[in-house]
Amino acid sequence: MTQYVNVNAGYLEVDELDNEDHHAHEEYVITLLLSGYVTLKGESATQIKPGTLTLVPSGFPHTLRKGKAMSVHWLSFGIANEQQAQHDDLFSPFKQIRQGALPIAQVSQSRLPYLITLFEEIQRACSAEKPYVVLASLINLIISEAASASSISEVYVGHETKISKAMQFIERRCCDGISLKDVAQAVHVSPAHLTTKMKASTGFTVGQWISKHRLKVAINRLETTDDSIEHIAQKIGFSDVTHFIRQFKKAYRITPATWRRQHITNTEKP
């Protein structure tokens, strides 16, 4: 079963939006547009209308070009083990999007009220700091609805890009001591070319993406094992535990030990 980390959810109302450049998110993002419209620019421009789900995989380059009178439910989450998610059938919509499918799914009118309820429930669960099992169940139900909706597997806009392939390689191999050179070799481009394209497309460097995914694996180990901080640092590719703690604190503003204590406290809540 796929393990989720950094789960957040909310509701937004936006009067007008013009060329908001998001580059790429570290987390997976799912949105449900309730009213208004917005144009999403990925490999091509797509206008999103009310009743449409948008699914954005981690590291997927995209830009919101124009939007007006929007009301949106949104959900974001990280995945602790990307290799595990690759074999999870529930994540087939995200796999198809990485392979070139449009990142949208039109929800039928009969299913829309139920989906809205799921978004509202996960917002309440996040606010109340409900146990992980509650959040995970709601995420799974939302993704399942997306998989059942139309369009994701029907319309393709192109083949996997070099950036998409690079991101998938990083997700699979982030804890194996890989470097920029390894990623570039895996997607058959020069390190210099990949450096330029990755930064321009996602807003982050290859090294930063490797670090981000390592830290997500660390979170999973902190929450699901009794391994020492030193052992976790070694397992995810950090030779120096002090450097690992520094990078973790820079990303999450607390130490790994504090994260573990807070998670144990939250999971014990009714």
Brief synopsis:
By secondary structure, this protein is α+β, with helices and mostly antiparallel strands. It has helices spanning 82-86, 92-98, 112-127, 132-148, 162-173, 180-186, 191-202, 206-224, 229-235, 241-252, 256-267; strands spanning 4-23, 28-41, 45-48, 52-56, 62-79, 104-106. Helix 3 (112-127) packs antiparallel against helix 4 (132-148) and helix 6 (180-186) crosses helix 7 (191-202).
Essential attributes:
270 residues, 2 domains, alpha+beta, 24% strand, 6-stranded antiparallel β-sheet, Arc Repressor Mutant, subunit A, Jelly Rolls
Describe this structure in words.
The protein has 270 residues and is of the alpha+beta class. It folds into two domains: 4-148, Regulatory protein AraC (Jelly Rolls, Sandwich); 162-267, Arc Repressor Mutant, subunit A (Orthogonal Bundle), CATH 1.10.10. The chain has helices spanning 82-86, 92-98, 112-127, 132-148, 162-173, 180-186, 191-202, 206-224, 229-235, 241-252, 256-267, and strands at 4-23, 28-41, 45-48, 52-56, 62-79, 104-106. Strands 1, 2, 3, 4, 5 and 6 form a six-stranded antiparallel sheet that branches. Strand 2 and strand 3 form a beta hairpin. Helix 6 crosses helix 7. The model is unreliable at 153-159 (pLDDT under 50).
